[in-house]
Amino acid sequence: MTPREQAVAEEIRAIARRELRLGFDPADHEELAARLDSLALLSLVVAVEDRFRIALTEEDAAVARSLADLARIVAARAAPEVLP
């Protein structure tokens, strides 16, 4: 991952801890659906969309299997002023 993507991944981890009260930090290449139920995954997506002011599509969901995948999509779409 690029430094920008890594910063986004760290922010997503912080969101997951804060919003979902996760007791673990997802690894970069760990499949999110394997660790989160559908409601938690949806909550994470909504929180990420709100934080980075982007909209994720169903196609994004099909591609974003891991935290690294999600961070790549967010880093590519988010305006520089909203990135960490």
Descriptive notes:
By secondary structure, the protein is an all-alpha fold. It has one domain (3-82): ACP-like (Non-ribosomal Peptide Synthetase Peptidyl Carrier Protein, Chain A, Orthogonal Bundle), CATH 1.10.1200.10. It has five helices and no strands. The radius of gyration is 11 Å and the shape is globular. The two termini are 15 Å apart.
Brief sketch in words of this structure:
By secondary structure, the chain is mainly α. The chain has helices at residues 3-20, 32-35, 38-52, 58-63, 67-77.
Report the average pLDDT across residues: 91
Query: Which fold name corresponds to the CATH topology?
Result: Non-ribosomal Peptide Synthetase Peptidyl Carrier Protein, Chain A
Q: What is the annotated CATH architecture?
A: Orthogonal Bundle
Provide a count of the helices.
Answer: 5
Order of secondary-structure elements = HHHHH
Give the oligomeric state. Answer: single chain
SS elements, strand count? 0
**What is the total domain count?**
1
Low-confidence stretches: none
CATH class descriptor: Mainly Alpha
CATH homologous superfamily grouping: ACP-like
Going by helix content, strand content and strand pairing, the class is: mainly alpha
Share of residues in strands: under 5%
Q: Please tell me what the overall shape is.
A: globular
| Amino-to-carboxy terminus distance | 15 Å
- The whole-angstrom Rg is 11 Å
Main beta sheet, described? none
Helix content: 55-70%
